[in-house]
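Exercise 7. Predict the joint structure of the components listed below.
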Amino acid sequence: MDHRTEIADLGEFGLIEHLTQNIELQNASSVLGVGDDAAVIDHFGKQTVVTTDLLLEGVHFDLAYTPLRHLGYKSVIVNLSDVYAMNATPTQITVSIGISNRFSLEAIDEFYEGVYAACDKYGVDLVGGDTCSSQKGFIISVTAIGEVATDKFVKRSTAQIGDLLCCSGDLGAAYVGLLFLEREKQIYLESPQVQPDLEGEQYVIGRLLKPEAQKNTIDFFEASKLIPTAMMDVSDGLSSEILHICKQSGVGCTVYEEKLPIHEEMKRAAFKFEIDPTACALSGGEDYELLFTIAQNDYDKLVLNEQISVIGHITDPVEGRHIVTKGGNKHAITAQGWNAFK
Amino acid sequence: MDHRTEIADLGEFGLIEHLTQNIELQNASSVLGVGDDAAVIDHFGKQTVVTTDLLLEGVHFDLAYTPLRHLGYKSVIVNLSDVYAMNATPTQITVSIGISNRFSLEAIDEFYEGVYAACDKYGVDLVGGDTCSSQKGFIISVTAIGEVATDKFVKRSTAQIGDLLCCSGDLGAAYVGLLFLEREKQIYLESPQVQPDLEGEQYVIGRLLKPEAQKNTIDFFEASKLIPTAMMDVSDGLSSEILHICKQSGVGCTVYEEKLPIHEEMKRAAFKFEIDPTACALSGGEDYELLFTIAQNDYDKLVLNEQISVIGHITDPVEGRHIVTKGGNKHAITAQGWNAFK
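Solution:
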């Protein structure tokens, strides 16, 4: 190799784009490949959705403050979230783990208790996996499979000018939960005798450690005969996801700060760290809410659902991608999201 | 946790059995779950097969002697092998990688060249994946999806008394290839100026570094209207796989040493290490051949295929699981296979 390009210079999305730019799908059943929350495979009347995530100790989770049962639960949820983000229903998962001899069977059992709890709650079957030893750290790879009626799957790339930009639930709490846990970990490392002070922060910590996937939102779409024009889940942070939808759809957008769904508990907790709740909502990540666009005509179908916020609208691409602050200023949206390689 | 059970005391298969003993499948589409080469999912007229494997640097591969291009190729092959082992045709894969900043983009490109080469050769589409940074080492997780006509999939648990036990290709060469590469690595570490001496060992080294999956064998079954009664791929070693089929089918078997398919190059290479080629064939692993059983009535369909060897037959379970040596002695078959946790 004559030349060395650092992965960090591309970032995760640049790397994926680079690696997948020349793919040509060979099987007629491969309806949608790389570049969305999940792939879509045609199966004679219904379509199969497939998605996979790799979770690494020290990168995606810290066992110092992550109970293994929660970790098992969350490992499933983050994948189900990608299936729901296609407007599909998850049906099966596979779970592979790599574990060092630091882990006992009882520890692995706790992890799987969480996996099975998520399977039970979401009606999903664990149908396979792989188990091997690792030299260091806990490695988790989950693949989720789901189904969707033909052509009801929703991509990221199909938002239309004039559509409303919407979001389920509330944003930023998981990030603030992480700040608390990281702070307590530091205190513990410096003074092991000090008891953790997480009193009253159950909401934000729960959002980090035990997120849920948006089955309710997908069920609501079905019941309301509403099909979003574009959709993805919020894992890296709202700003980053908005830019994905805009870029892949070739559109602009305007988002209103005052419309961002922020939970009172998150706001209170953010102020303890003297940080701006809006910044947490925009850049926090790990919310596992759904970000989606709908035709304006469908607005009436939304109004009775208190779990869904209209946060802006899709514009012509020449208008750019902006957020209008409560003070009336307009700023370009930038992805402060997580770059795994920096 | 009051009690600590070491994972090593269970071994990989004991651990999987332990973790999956209480699974009850909830979705009607989950035809076959954990416990075979792949899961089977019903999709309205055809069935979908799903399998996944986790490959870890330092555990499953050593980059000191594994070119990244070969590693990419092999990562796909080991999963396709599991799909073929269900008598199914692979159609899609997802590939997730975790990489440390030790790897350049050029290195990752080499890996993906191998992935795409395998996709091309086997007519499979790469439809998704995940890319993240790892703190240490190269982590690969591949999931393969395939399809099979309803009820044509072949499990491990359905071998019948009287069936012939058969194997594709030849066995043990990959293991001997590994011995050469490990020996040269040691010499290099001790005396970096010495050039590696792998002259004439292309066959065994090729079997390790660039295995192929048994598409030809599955195509032959289709063309011959032959459906094996039970099947699995040989990844951990022939003995280990024979015991899986016998245990899951509740049967015994007799295998004949003189019938084991051993390549002349493997035999010659094994003698250089003063080891018994039969032991390599029985316990080597990583052959990615197919081990299967057929009804005696189907024997005529096999005779013209030189790639398939009949190595024994299935017996009543009370007769145990034995190998008859060339000298006429009878030994119980034991799994010397790989225990990932020791």
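Discussion. Chain B touches chain A through 82 residues (CB under 8 Å).
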